[in-house]
Amino acid sequence: MYRPKTTLEQWRILQAVVDNGGYAHAAAALNKSQSSLNHAVAKLQNQLGVQLLEVRGRKAFLTEAGEVMLRRSRHLTQNVQELESLADNINQDWEPEITVALDLAYPKSHFYPVLKDFLPESRGSRLKLIDTVLTGTEEAVTQGWADIVIGGSVPKGYLGEPIAEVSFVAVSSPDHPLAQLDGPIEASELLQHLQLVIKDTSQTPNEKQGWLKSELRWTVSHFQTAIELVMQNMGFCWLPYHTVESHIESGQLVPLDIQGSSFRITNMFMIHPRPDTLGPGSRHLSDLILSHRQITPLNEQIEQQNNEASHGDDPRRT
Prior knowledge:
With 318 residues, the chain is α/β, with parallel strands linked by helices.
């Protein structure tokens, strides 16, 4: 069995000497005597058989070998620190890993500020972000493989907190035959054209949402692929407006005026598949998601209306 020649403390002392510009400042930072630091570094070099530092005047400088060894040693001490933090978190029941299932339609731009706030408070927990679609999102709830799920529907028997609204719009290339029609497009006309749909991530997809009656359908895994195919004048597709807004503004895509369904609005919900066993890390992440949600809860709407009424701002009184 391999026995290390060196100790973590020796590497930490070497790092302190370099980071503080010499033995004197490192000794003050570590609250140790300068002679003890000199002895620790000298012993480290003897044990390795490699000169790590050379003293010029009153300052110590890294040798070329020392630069390489120091860089690698930082990974070592950081890994140990993270390992010890993980042990503390486990003792405090803070989850070592948190899995979040995000429906592909949910705007990731809403989630990035959440992650930015969560990172410094994550206590070393690993975060797994899994993209899901339709039935695959529901399965993340019903099968319980995710700690937090953000999706467009709440399966029976579960509760969900609304956090955002997503508008879906049918689009095509401006050169597509559907874009050339005058007036609202009837469903019978759609039947004659290629429809691009996003693949359900479930192993047993249940196609119960959306209009899926075209004689010819192509299935893709991501919105970006669908957008690129539509811009190539290959067909039409219902897509979240936030994914195509810039393309519509630039004229690369046009929204289709479809009889009875020019656009659809879907609420996005945050769902806890196993609320009774939700860990403190997942609970904190959930609180951050709610603090960044893009939709006003009903209780806040009612409170706002009551405040306006109490201040005489209720328009029904005029």
